[in-house]
Amino acid sequence: MMNNYRPIQPPKLQQIQSPDYSYQEYVPCESLASHVVCYWTMDFHAKNKNQLHRILPDGCVDIIVDRQSTSSWKAAFVEGLMTRFEVLSLSKYQSLFGIRFYPEAAHSILKFPASSFIGQHVFLEDIWGMEGLFMVEEILSIQAVSKIIEIVERKLNHLLALNNTSTNSLLLESMQYIYGFKGSISTLVLAEKLSFTERHMRRIFDRELGLSPKEMLGIVRFQSILQELYSGTSTNFTDIALKYGYYDQSHFIKNFKRYYGILPKQL
């Protein structure tokens, strides 16, 4: 099933690029589009200054590969769902490659639900064993991003072909509604559409994602606002806040700052 949810990160939204710092995103092949949001790279060539790299909650799970690692051991890890922003101060040369997964699809790829990775880095070899190490070893031996993506997509398609873990149907349907409404739907209405109680829905989200439905709704709504800003559809924050159900400006500003770390007017 195709997904129109496209979360965005600050370097892309604010077009933060320099000769020393670069962030790029790449579209997955059609067979993986329902599982993979994008592939991404982040490169920083340290000279005489630090670079701030802001990471926002996007409702996704990432595999991150350190392309500077001298060994495939502990060179790749899974980063779980975030609920608050994080700012890294880059001071050393960095080159990262990432695979960003939709949360409802993570289980079928990673063999464990997204809730397993909340608040911790889990090394890829602890999930995929030697196969994970072999893939990372191939990645570390190649410079061209297009070739890395070919290796990764071959591996992901192979895993899906062997997969015998079905995505929880309630979670899948819930996320489709959340994406469709761009997060602007209450948990009560969501539960009614699914013909389940809010309590049962919360249990499923906690077990599979490690987040409540309310938290996921907030993240998707926040990201949908950012996507609207990025596309240029609207640049008036008051209009955007109203469109996404924020009738209290102070509530909108508080939520925005919680997820981004700055005020809307500072963008």
TrEMBL record:
- The answer, when asked if DNA-binding is one of the entry's keywords, is yes
A molecular function (GO) held by this record is: DNA-binding transcription factor activity
Tell me where in this chain the HTH araC/xylS-type domain is found. 190-267
Q: Which domain of life is it from?
A: Bacteria
What name does the UniProt record give this protein?
Helix-turn-helix domain-containing protein
- Xref: Gene3D superfamilies: Homeodomain-like
Query: What Pfam families does the entry give?
Result: DUF6597, HTH_18
InterPro entries in the record? AraC_XylS_family_regulators, DUF6597, Homeodomain-like_sf, HTH_AraC, Tscrpt_reg_AraC-type_HTH
Which terms are listed as keywords in the entry? DNA-binding, Transcription, Transcription regulation
According to its UniProt entry, this protein's organism is Shimazuella alba
What SMART domains has UniProt attached to this entry? HTH_ARAC
